[in-house]
Amino acid sequence: MLHEAANAAIKQTKLKRDKEEAQRLVQEGKERAELLLAEMNHRIANSLALVASLARMQASTVQDRGAQTALQEMQVRISAIAGVHRKLYTSSDVRFVELGSYMHGLIGEISTAVDLNGRYHFRINVDDDLKISTDKAVSLGVIVTELVTNAVKYAYPDGGGEINISIRSCGGDRCRLHVEDQGVGWTGEGAVQGTGLGTKITRAVACSLQASVIYEPAERGTRAVLEFNCKS
């Protein structure tokens, strides 16, 4: 009996030691994977930032106004995606992006690229601690970029003005994005201004969120709205 009890105790000790070793290896593997993922996001963000800088440099050298505008818009689109990766490599959870800080950074990038004279005032309101998945953050960033860029280009033909960006929870798993201005106004109907590329991009990316951008009636200016599932 004593011999059997001793063997059982030795076996239990060995099992406990093996379990602890397995848990240690799993934890080390997890930490190593997180480190590699953070480094990957860092490198992607830096690479995209470099491409955006090259687009900005090219825009400063061309004389054709249309080409210059196209390059500036491309720079902003690239920066929208780079911003997500920048947030990821400084985040403790790479599955999600905190929208408040991301939107402030994104609007700063847009302002630098397309509002060189500081004529526009951007107001950003995002629910506290609102987070969405990485893929959805990229899509939302592209949509906000297009809507804000359009407002900068077309809302105030005689000068600058205010552009409001808000993202609020609207119950359950739903969130609502508003991009509003107090300019000349557009209802989403009729011929689009410019090449129409921004509108095509907005519609395509909204479809990836299983949503669509609608234009609500506004007393003045344009109010673009996107309601989407911000949880799944």
- The CATH first-level class comes to Alpha Beta
The number of E-state strands comes to 7
What proportion of the residues form beta strands (DSSP E)?
15-25%
Ends apart, CA distance between termini: 57 Å
Strand-and-helix sequence, N→C?
Answer: HHEHEEHEEHEE
Q: Give the strand order, joined by hyphens, for the main sheet.
A: 2-4-5-7-6
Total helices: the number is: 5
Helix content: 55-70%
Number of domains: 1
Set out the fold topology.
Layout: H1 2-61, H2 65-88, E1 96-98, H3 99-114, E2 121-126, E3 131-133, H4 134-155, E4 162-169, E5 174-181, H5 197-208, E6 213-216, E7 223-229
Parallel strand pairs: 2-4
Antiparallel strand pairs: 1-3, 4-5, 5-7, 6-7
Helix pairs in contact: 1-2, 2-3, 2-4, 3-4, 4-5
Can I get a quick summary?
By secondary structure, the protein is an alpha+beta fold. It is 58% helix and 17% strand.
Please explain how this structure is put together:
This protein is of the alpha+beta class. The protein has a single domain (2-229), classed as Histidine kinase-like ATPase, C-terminal domain (Heat Shock Protein 90, 2-Layer Sandwich), CATH 3.30.565.10. 58% of the residues lie in helices and 17% in strands. It contains five helices and seven strands. The chain has helices at 2-61, 65-88, 99-114, 134-155, 197-208, and strands at 96-98, 121-126, 131-133, 162-169, 174-181, 213-216, 223-229. The strands form two sheets. A five-stranded mixed sheet has the order 2-4-5-7-6. A two-stranded antiparallel sheet has the order 1-3. A hairpin with a 6-residue loop joins strand 6 and strand 7 (223-229). Helix 2 packs antiparallel against helix 3, helix 2 packs antiparallel against helix 4 (134-155) and helix 4 (134-155) packs antiparallel against helix 5 (197-208). The longest helix has 60 residues, at 2-61. The protein is elongated, with a radius of gyration of 24 Å. 29% of the residues are buried.
